Amino acid sequence: MPKKAATKKEVPTTPKGMHDVLPADMAYVNLITKESKRVAEFYGFGHIETPHLEKTDLFLRPLGDTSEVVEKQMYSLRTRGGDRLTLRPEGTAPLMRAYYQNGMASWPQPVKLFYAGSFYRHESPQALRFREFRQVGVEAIGDDDAINDALVIRTLVSSLQVFGVKEITVNINSLGDKTCRPGYHKELVNYYKKHEEKICRDCRRRVKENPLRLLDCKEEACAALVGNAPQMVDHLCEECKKHFSEVIEFLDEMQTPYFLDSHLARGFDYYTRTIFEIFENDTEDKTALGAGGRYDDLGELMGAKKVPAVGGALGVERIINVLKKKGIKPRADAKPRIFLIQLGPEARKKSLTLMEELRKIGVPVAQSLSRDSLRSQLNIVNKLEIPVAIILGQKEALDGTVGLRNMETGVQETLSFDKFIGTIKARLKEFS
Ligand SMILES: [Zn+2]
Ligand SMILES: [Zn+2]
Questions:
Q1: ω into residue 23 within 30 of 0, thus cis?
Q2: What is the pLDDT of residues 320-349, one digit of tens each?
Q3: What 3-state DSSP class applies to 231?
Q4: At the topology level of CATH, where does 338-431 sit?
Q5: Domain 23-180+236-325, CATH homologous superfamily name and number
Q6: What is the per-residue pLDDT across 145-159, written as a single tens digit (0 to 9) for each?
Q7: How far is the CA of 58 from the centre of ligand 2 (A)?
Q8: How far, in Å, from the CA of 93 to the mean position of ligand 1?
Q9: 110: cis peptide before it, omega within 30°?
């Protein structure tokens, strides 16, 4: 037998940049998922789920070979059968795939979809940037009307406001389309060529391959050049200009605060016309809580028929961070107000029946059935700050009664076992 190397026993941990979501944080995740879904459904978006793994090709062309995500950040694998698969780095391309694959073109257009889930990018971990991160998002596929752009933005903004993030600004820009963007590209390239000795190595390559991404570079020297760079809004064709001003008009109408950010750019090749990022006001931290845009050319990039579409998403971890800073706590709606204390084998058996009865009438109840001392159970009641205790002791089990103790006043009532559920039901407000 091969000798096992003498290694120190290591406690298993999560992969770098990924973490467990513990119950306290999960309450935030659930709040965000539930409320954003409710808001999205109000605006007509239906819930969809797509696989976490997609064929690698799905992301290659749409995101752009030169995009940072494709260049460095995709988690790709080869299956035993030889398929090349990738953990989804974003939500839009999978939803477009689902649109074509499920024949949604024959549904009433636009098809409006809501999604929530985890996405994966192999980024260098830093504050609020994780390799597994959660997003909630909406997409309106199959219609190029500017009202859809405004509706997508409004849905995301309304969600944030429901969570308790009230003061919001939407930074918005138009990237134009195939008609007007090439002319702008040329001007952008000319501008950066004049400053070629100042820009970073990546940007020198971007000048040739993907000039729009020059505006997105985080290197200090490159970022300093953005201010005087030519602006897309000055180069929009008539159609794009009209579309953009309609989006703005609709946002005005829906009283959605926006800021025209003429140098706003986004990381993926598939964006056309409207792009936006959503920020909380008065925060020093300049990370967007959400972002998105129109992607009329994505379908074609995927090798399918052209289908105009627009969408956007919110970053769940970033929102949780903001809610915590603001002291906003998710309401734990299932937090029990009753604790069931049982003492002795007979009582323990009866408490199982009682729990089932309480569950049926929708009263959450906490318990620690593996404990048998009164003191250890009372300790838990106090720790959880539960105001009412049901006491089922040996005496009660014999008498066919149940004790109901108000933990704040110490007053205890004795109720008959048979009438107990009826009494609780009649006083439901006290207990749920
Ligand atoms: Zn650069
Ligand atoms: Zn145009």
A1: no
A2: 999 999 999 887 656 788 999 999 999 999
A3: coil
A4: Rossmann fold (3.40.50)
A5: Bira Bifunctional Protein; Domain 2 (3.30.930.10)
A6: 999 999 999 999 999
A7: 26
A8: 27
A9: yes
